[in-house]
AcrR family transcriptional regulator
Amino acid sequence: MASDAALSKQRVVVEAVRLADREGVGGLSMRRLAGALGAGAMSLYYYVASKEELLDAMIDVVFEEIELPPEETDWQSAMRRRAVSARQVLARHPWAIGLMESRTSPGPANLRHREAVTACLRRAGFPVLMATHANWLLDSYVYGFALQEASLPFDTADEFADMAEDVFLPQLPPDEFPYLNESAAVLAAAGYDPVEEFTFGLDLVLAALESLRVPT
């Protein structure tokens, strides 16, 4: 057990993220966190004044892990890299999906990320309002996909194929559900990988936004 003297704000926040990764943010409490740290519950308030401040710091850790859109490439490539990175980060921290836009006291990494995204869109020729529309659309797509992906009962193409054959098809008699039966059979046989859906949809979103900017 660690002593309170060994604590720091960074250690408190990192352990809170680990706890949320394992059990979800709903199971996070100051008492539970103190137990994981081997410290007194009241000692944590020296580093974070409240659970809300702790959540702000935890979300900042998540934003810090997301790659900023690089400046040395075109806007679509930059935003694609940022979106792919965000999806990967949210897969590691699914508890954060519903909290990314909820913080009213954003931390430095949060603000740096939002500034970089806005700068990328503005430099690409999106007027302020259109850049805002684009930002909302891209974030909604990433968060929505991450939320859906976190709830899927399979993780890989092989697992999907096994479920399609063993679980889905028996529930889809062809005389009652001909199109669903056909889809499940064809996708399983083709080695369909649900992971590819993210970039398919993302490329459609980026292509649609391209027509709305004013080239510089």
Notes: The chain has two domains: 1-49, 67-215. Residues 67-215 form a domain with the Tetracycline Repressor; domain 2 fold (CATH 1.10.357.10).
